[in-house]
Structure formats: structure tokens, C-alpha cells
UniProtKB/TrEMBL annotation:
<feature type="signal peptide">
    <location>
        <begin position="1"/>
        <end position="18"/>
    </location>
</feature>
<dbReference type="InterPro" id="IPR008928">
    <property type="entry name" value="6-hairpin_glycosidase_sf"/>
</dbReference>
<dbReference type="InterPro" id="IPR008291">
    <property type="entry name" value="Glucoamylase_SBD"/>
</dbReference>
<keyword id="KW-0624">Polysaccharide degradation</keyword>
<keyword id="KW-0732">Signal</keyword>
<feature type="active site" description="Proton acceptor">
    <location>
        <position position="196"/>
    </location>
</feature>
<feature type="active site" description="Proton donor">
    <location>
        <position position="199"/>
    </location>
</feature>
<dbReference type="Pfam" id="PF00686">
    <property type="entry name" value="CBM_20"/>
</dbReference>
<dbReference type="InterPro" id="IPR013783">
    <property type="entry name" value="Ig-like_fold"/>
</dbReference>
<dbReference type="GO" id="GO:0004339">
    <property type="term" value="F:glucan 1,4-alpha-glucosidase activity"/>
</dbReference>
<dbReference type="InterPro" id="IPR002044">
    <property type="entry name" value="CBM20"/>
</dbReference>
<dbReference type="Pfam" id="PF00723">
    <property type="entry name" value="Glyco_hydro_15"/>
</dbReference>
<feature type="binding site">
    <location>
        <position position="140"/>
    </location>
    <ligand>
        <name>substrate</name>
    </ligand>
</feature>
<keyword id="KW-0378">Hydrolase</keyword>
<feature type="domain" description="CBM20">
    <location>
        <begin position="479"/>
        <end position="578"/>
    </location>
</feature>
<dbReference type="InterPro" id="IPR011613">
    <property type="entry name" value="GH15-like"/>
</dbReference>
<keyword id="KW-0326">Glycosidase</keyword>
Length: 578
């Protein structure tokens, strides 16, 4: 009995050692390739940047099926967050030129008028631009309000480094105006609907809310450091509202619902990415900010990973405590619905981040919520606190390290010898699919490897936050605005008999952009069509008119119409069909 137990332990240890050395070897060869491949996708001189302007990140050099030869604000910021983190932590200080180019490119991009608006009317929420820094004007899922949050976070990280160099003038004169534009946008618009990071669901999205919250907290710290205190009160208030709203995504089934809309299970890599992109080791395992090692984030991770076990053939037969290929969300059908490199790596990174904190705090907590997660690795574990001197701590952390390494090993198994990483790998045989050389795949590789090596990104102020909102009671209260305004929309539109004019827009009262349930206007004063609706006060509301005739539906041309509602009373808006 004793001997057989010992044999099992030894076998497990040998397996862990084998896997760990496989992962070590993969990291040694893949790290430099991933960094080089990432830089190759940045203009003007990246070898695969396809003529992109200076500092512009192409999402992928693939220009057909799918065409990703554009620059997304989100993807670019994620890429530059890695570059800036590695620079400021001394891991790679060869990239100052790229960072300067990125800053200069965003000075231009922020000012480009686009279908979401101008810099003052919502244009900062535009998801993507052409790589020559002009507006992309075709139909798209817009706006995507995570972009300004992620970009300002990358720029603030850079600003904080430059302040340690004593370079206050550049921070104040060049970076601060960019950061302020983005964060004013976040503060003013966070409570409006947004397309999620996958550009599919128009509602509220956990990733967006979490990153918006982080960006405002960091912005307040920088504002104080630069003595730019006029923004502090508004940004602090909205950060509090965001933190409150963040709690409302938790659901009692033990995971985070990624989007408020979309009609899916809500199990989504969105939430895992949010946790790793808001990691702050100084906050420990704080549940309010969904830190990687918090019980809420671990319970969520388990639910997310398990949702792919039965739907991908390459996961078949794997036990629940063994790593599995994961994708965006189980209902995904894009390009056939396959695992993605960046989502599989995100799982490993959340676990590596957790190990950093447990080792730093020299203990880990098992709560009733995280118990099923920890029981994967030790079926006898019970709720409690385990000091690093305990056998349970050793058993759990070593098994979790092995589990985490397993996700990297899956990525390693499906990486060709060139080191190139596409967006997806096949759920049947692991072969590469969709866009080649996805820049974010390389960024995800580097951040996972860094977390495994114990690299701790700079704190952003997640520690010690409190909120009157809590998970058990859900969101509610403390919204961005209160009260409503009665708004009459008049639009001058000539129609043919049988044709009607409708309206929909960015708030609940305007059906959250759903054309199928858009509100019909009255033609009592034809050719002026009218409707009066109650809209939230003090709010930027975007909308468009639609023509419907039988089963045909025609949107007004871009850009969206915008009104900023007053604080109360009533308001009349006079438009002409475009
Ligand atoms: C401040 O940083 C900027 C951006 O890298 C650089 O161009 C400038 O030379 C720096 N100034 C000083 C005084 O170091
Ligand atoms: C706006 O905030 C309120 C209060 O937190 C919340 O109930 C509502 O869902 C939010 N709406 C959006 C679109 O963020
Ligand atoms: C464990 O829980 C205690 C009490 O709630 C807390 O003080 C401590 O920070 C927690 N440690 C970790 C690693 O979560
Ligand atoms: C729209 O026209 C009405 C008069 O018909 C006017 O009272 C109102 O101020 C106008 N609205 C705007 C926003 O100019």
C-alpha cells in the first residue's frame, strides 16, 4: 500500500519533470522567435509589416481569407504593453525606437475622423484603421470601447518608466495629452454599450469593463504624479462606478458571464484575458478585482476550460486535471470554431500569475468556491489556509505548475519548427488555421513565458480597493448617471408608400442597436417623422434611423448620429435623413 502510493508519487513527479523540461526547451527556442515575429509585424521596417506606417502594428500580414491587414487599437495596445513591460523591467531594452514610433502613430490615429465620430464625438471608440493611418469606412462592429482603455494603460506604463528616468517633460507634453483623450473617453462612455473584444456581441462586456476600470485607476495615479489634478475627481468617481458594475457579471453558477448580451452561456476567454490583463501582484488574491488567484477567477477558469473538453476532438479522453486546448467560447463557429493559441496561453498565464502570488504570500486559501478547482489536484483538500511550509501547499502548487505547463505544452506541440503562430489551430489535428502570424499570438506567448519565469508587472493600484457593491448582491446603484430626459427625434425623410422610418441606438431605450426591434416613428407631420423617448440624462447617445420596406432594411449612412442629453427636462433633436 505504502509502496504503491510512493510509486504513484514518483511517477507523477517524473511526468511533471519530463513535461517541465519539454516546456523549458520550448521556451528557450520560442522566446526569441516570438519576439522577432512580433516586431516583424510593426511598421515601417518590420519584415512582414506590409508597408504599414511607422509604429503601426498589423494584426496579421494575412490579407485574404481572412483579411487582417489592418491595425486594431486593442491588438496594438496589447502588443505594446508587452514591449513596454519588457523594456521597463529590463528584459529587453532594445525597443525604444519602436515605442517612440508607436506613440507618434497614436498621436495621428487619435485625430482621424472615422465612422464612430471625431476625437470629440466618439471617434476614439473606432476599432480599426487602415495601415496607412486612414479611416476604415466599411460596415463593422463599432464602437469597441476597450481600445482607449488598453492604449492608455500601455502609455501610462511607459510614462511611469520615463518618470523614473526624470523625463517629465516628454510625459507631460507628449504622453499626457494622448492619455487624457483616452481616459476622458472612458470616463464619459463606459456606461454605453460596446462590441466585445471578439467584435460580435453589442452589449456590456467584462473584458472591456475590467480594462476600463484599470485604466482610470492608473490614470488617477499618473494625474496626481504630474499635478494634473482637474481630472482626478471625475476619473475616481467613474472608476468606482466601474468597479461596482464589474461585480454584476458574476453569476451564481460559479463563473463570470462575459457579455450581458449575445444569448450564449457566457463562458468565454474574455474573462480569463481580463484577469491576466488586470493582474496586480500587490493586490494578492483579491476577488473584487478578479485577480488571477482569487476564488472567483479560479472557479471561472475551471468552468471555462471544462467547456472545451467535450467539443474539441483533440481533447478527447483527457482527465479534468490535465490541460486541454481552449478557444474563445464553446459556441464559437468562426472559421469552424477552433482553439486559439492566445486563449490556451492565457490559461497558463492565469495559473503562473497565481503561483507568483501564492509563493510571494507564502500561503494559499481554499474557499468553498475554489474548492472544486483545488480538488482537481488533491481530492482530499478541504477549505482552509495552507502555509507554504505545509505538504498541501507543496502538493497543490507543484500540481498546478504542471497543469499550467500542460497548456504551454499543447501550444508547443502545435508550433511548427519555424516558430510561426497563426490565430487558431485545428480542433481535430492541431494544424494551423485562420490568419498566419497573428501578432497577438506572439504577445501572448511572451507574457505567458514571462509569468512562468516569475516576472511581476508593475502594480496599477488594485490593492486595497473597496466597493459598496459586492458579488453576492450583484451590481446596481452608483451608475454613471441618474434620471431621464424626454427626447423628441424629428427626421425629415421622404418615403414611398409602404415604407416606414425607425430608430435604434446605443442605449436600452433605443433597443441597443438591434434593427429588428428598432422603434417606429410617426408620420403624422410627413415628411417629418417623429418619436419621443425617455433617454438617460447627461449621456452621450448614438443612434441611426432605418428605413424598412417589406423585408428590406436600409440604415442611414455613416457616421452614427450623436446627442449629448441634458441633465433633465426635455429636448428636441431635428435631423435630415442621410
Ligand atoms: C524622453 O523620452 C523621449 C522618448 O523616448 C526621448 O525622445 C527624449 O530624448 C527623452 N528626453 C530626455 C531628456 O531623456
Ligand atoms: C450602466 O450602469 C448601470 C449601473 O451599474 C448598469 O445597470 C447598466 O447595465 C450599465 N449599462 C451599460 C451599457 O454599461
Ligand atoms: C487568505 O485569506 C486571508 C483571510 O481572508 C487573507 O488575509 C490572505 O491575504 C489570503 N491569502 C491569499 C494568498 O489569498
Ligand atoms: C428643433 O426644432 C425646434 C423647433 O421646431 C426647436 O425648438 C429646437 O430647439 C430644435 N432643436 C435643436 C437641437 O436645435
Amino acid at each position: 500500500m505504502l509502496l504503491s502510493t510512493l510509486c504513484v508519487i514518483l511517477a507523477a513527479a517524473r511526468q511533471a519533470w519530463t513535461q517541465s523540461s519539454t516546456v523549458d526547451a520550448y521556451i528557450a527556442s520560442q522566446s526569441p522567435l516570438a519576439k522577432a515575429d512580433l516586431l516583424a509585424n510593426i511598421g515601417p521596417s518590420g519584415s512582414k509589416s506590409m508597408g504599414a506606417k511607422s509604429g503601426i502594428v498589423v494584426a496579421s500580414p494575412s490579407n485574404v481569407n481572412p483579411d487582417y491587414l489592418y491595425t486594431w487599437t486593442r491588438d496594438s495596445a496589447v502588443v505594446f504593453q508587452v514591449i513596454v513591460d519588457q523594456f521597463s523591467l529590463g528584459i529587453d531594452t532594445s525597443t525604444r525606437g519602436e515605442i517612440d514610433n508607436y506613440v507618434a502613430s497614436q498621436v495621428i490615429i487619435q485625430q482621424v475622423s472615422n465612422p464612430s465620430g471625431t476625437i470629440t464625438t466618439g471617434g476614439l471608440g473606432e476599432p480599426k484603421f487602415n495601415i496607412d493611418e486612414t479611416a476604415f469606412t466599411a460596415a463593422w462592429g463599432r464602437p469597441q470601447r476597450d481600445g482607449p482603455a488598453l492604449r492608455s494603460t500601455a502609455l501610462i506604463t511607459w510614462a511611469n518608466f520615463l518618470l523614473t528616468e526624470g523625463n517629465t517633460s516628454y510625459v507631460t507634453n507628449t504622453l499626457w495629452p494622448l492619455i487624457q483623450n483616452d481616459l476622458n473617453y472612458v470616463a464619459q462612455n463606459w456606461n454605453q454599450s460596446t462590441f466585445d473584444l471578439w467584435e460580435e456581441v453589442d452589449s456590456s462586456s467584462f473584458f472591456t469593463t475590467a480594462l476600463q476600470h484599470r485604466s482610470l485607476r492608473q490614470g488617477v495615479q499618473l494625474a496626481n504624479a504630474l499635478d494634473q489634478t482637474s481630472v482626478v475627481s471625475s476619473w475616481t468617481t467613474q472608476a468606482g462606478n466601474l468597479l461596482c458594475f464589474l461585480q454584476s457579471y458574476w453569476n451564481t453558477a460559479g463563473y463570470i458571464t462575459a457579455n450581458t448580451g449575445g444569448g450564449r452561456s457566457g463562458k468565454d476567454a474574455n474573462t480569463v484575458l481580463a484577469s491576466i490583463h488586470t493582474f496586480d501582484a500587490a493586490a494578492g488574491c483579491d476577488a473584487l478585482t478578479f485577480q488571477p488567484c482569487s476564488d472567483v477567477a479560479l472557479s471561472n477558469l475551471l468552468t471555462y476550460v471544462n467547456s472545451f473538453r467535450s467539443i474539441y476532438p483533440i481533447n478527447s479522453g483527457l482527465a479534468n486535471n490535465v490541460a486541454a486546448a481552449t478557444g474563445r467560447y464553446p459556441e464559437d463557429s468562426y472559421m469552424g470554431g477552433n482553439p486559439w493559441y492566445l486563449t490556451t496561453l492565457a490559461v497558463s498565464e492565469q495559473l503562473y500569475d497565481s503561483l507568483i502570488v501564492w509563493n510571494q504570500q507564502k500561503s494559499l486559501n481554499v474557499t468553498s468556491l475554489s474548492l472544486p478547482f483545488f480538488q482537481l489536484f488533491d481530492s482530499s483538500v478541504t477549505v482552509g489556509t495552507y502555509a507554504s511550509t505545509s505538504a498541501t501547499f507543496t502538493t497543490l502548487t507543484s500540481a498546478i505548475k504542471t497543469f499550467a505547463d500542460g497548456f504551454v505544452e499543447i501550444v508547443a506541440e502545435f508550433t511548427p519548427s519555424s516558430g510561426s503562430l497563426s490565430e487558431q489551430y485545428s480542433k481535430s489535428d492541431g494544424s494551423q488555421l485562420s490568419a498566419a502570424d497573428l501578432t497577438w499570438s506572439y504577445a501572448a506567448t511572451l507574457t505567458s513565458f514571462d509569468a512562468r519565469a516569475g516576472v511581476v508587472p508593475a502594480s496599477w493600484g488594485a490593492s486595497g480597493l473597496t466597493s459598496s457593491c459586492s458579488i453576492s448582491t450583484g451590481g446596481g446603484g452608483g451608475g454613471g448617471s441618474s434620471g431621464t430626459v424626454s427626447v423628441t427625434f424629428n427626421v425629415d425623410a421622404t418615403t414611398v408608400f409602404g415604407e416606414n422610418i425607425y430608430i435604434c441606438g446605443s442605449v436600452d431605450a433605443l433597443q441597443n442597436w438591434d434593427p429588428d426591434t428598432a422603434l417606429i416613428l410617426s408620420a403624422a407631420n410627413y415628411p417629418i417623422w417623429s418619436i419621443t423617448v425617455d433617454l438617460p440624462a447627461n449621456t452621450e447617445v448614438q443612434y441611426k434611423y432605418i428605413r424598412k420596406f417589406g423585408s428590406s432594411l436600409t440604415w442611414e449612412s455613416d457616421p452614427n448620429d450623436v446627442i449629448n442629453t441634458p441633465s433633465g427636462g426635455s429636448f428636441i433633436e431635428n435631423d435630415t435623413w442621410r
